[in-house]
Design goal:
By secondary structure, the protein is an alpha+beta fold. It has five helices and four strands; from the N terminus they run ααβαββαβα. The longest helix has 22 residues. It starts with a helix and ends with a helix. This is Copper-transporting atpase Ran1 (Protein responsive toantagonist 1).
Length: 118
């Protein structure tokens, strides 16, 4: 009976974590909003990730920001690829949000390499 309680609690915990990172859906935009979007893409160098869970956490957080269209963070390459609406969010806002999570993000590869080594 105790094993069943532990299993049930574990499933609820996993479900809660999954919902936190992946369950929130952004509102769909209308065709009029689509036409006034200023889509831009950035590739960021992200340091401080220790596992794929870190990458998933960054993705989940960024995905829920207004103006983010798509996001993909790769732990193995320490890269983040973000498509965003520049009328709603700036590159600096995205980088600041990643830093608030405890990671470092940079557009400048040389600066990124100095921080990784130093």
């Amino acid at each position: 009976m105790e094993k069943l309680s532990v299993l049930t609690a574990s499933l609820f915990l996993i479900g809660g974590i999954s919902w936190f990172f992946f369950g929130k859906k952004k509102e769909d935009s209308s065709p009029a909003e689509e036409s006034i979007r200023k889509k831009e893409n950035i590739e960021l160098d992200i340091s401080g990730m220790h596992c794929a869970g870190c990458a998933a956490g960054i993705e989940g957080t960024l995905r829920n920001l207004p103006g983010i269209i798509s996001v993909s963070v790769n732990f193995a390459t320490s890269k983040g690829y973000i498509e965003y609406d520049a009328t709603k969010i700036t590159k600096e806002d995205i980088i600041d949000r990643i830093r608030q999570l405890g990671y470092d993000a940079s557009l400048n590869l040389e600066e990124f390499e100095k921080k990784r080594k130093g």
